[in-house]
Amino acid sequence: MEHNIFDKISENYNVKIKVAKFKRDAPSVFSKNRNIFYINKKYLLESQTYSIFHTLAHNHLGTVCSKSTVEEKAAENLTYELLIPIEEIKDYIDYSLFKLKEIFPYCSFETIAKRLLPLKRNILTIWHNYTLVFRENSSSGSFNAKLDTFEIECMNYSYKTQDSIGRTNENRKLRCFSYFIKEESRKKVILFTERINI
After folding, report:
1. Domains plus CATH for the chain?
2. Which pTM was predicted?
3. pLDDT truncated to tens, each residue of the chain (198 aa)?
4. Suppose 27 and one of 47, 59, 147, 195 were both cysteines; which one would form an S-S bond, judging by CB atoms 3.0 to 4.6 Å apart?
5. What 3-state class would DSSP assign to 14?
């Protein structure tokens, strides 16, 4: 699969992809005229692929990686569309993250979860080693609401058992789907929370 995705990128975007030794810590770098991508084999396929598509998104938008949140958000959204077109994932909206990972093996669990977010009426929360790194509401973009104690219970359960669960709390009118994922030294929990009417 690894060579398939790189062959598709080369063919569809008229670029070459080569493996190289890196002096700096990055999943990929590109040549000055942006027609050759050098990938760092120390990185996971998902990181290499995301990095290439993110650069292609910037090329298409005529921007460069910057601290501008507007430019980066636009590039990130286009990256997700290039990696997993909405037309390809919408038929799988009710699949588990693990099943979707089988369908999109070159994407990280986080990328798949973020791609699902606009299609669901959910809050997506992601932790790396118990540290909150992402929280967003599908309907309003950024989401700064305080975590519900039920969400924290689900996250803690997944970390403690290293398992994934689906739970409903009727009193709080919440349903949570919590996925435990271990990637190299990082233990992640990806949590979808939805409000329910009872």
Report:
1. 2-83 (3.30.2010), 86-195 (3.30.450)
2. 0.83
3. 455 788 888 888 888 888 887 777 777 777 777 778 888 888 888 888 888 888 888 888 887 777 778 888 888 888 999 899 989 898 998 899 999 999 999 999 999 999 998 888 789 999 999 999 999 888 765 555 788 999 999 999 999 999 999 999 999 889 999 999 998 778 999 999 988 875
4. 47
5. coil
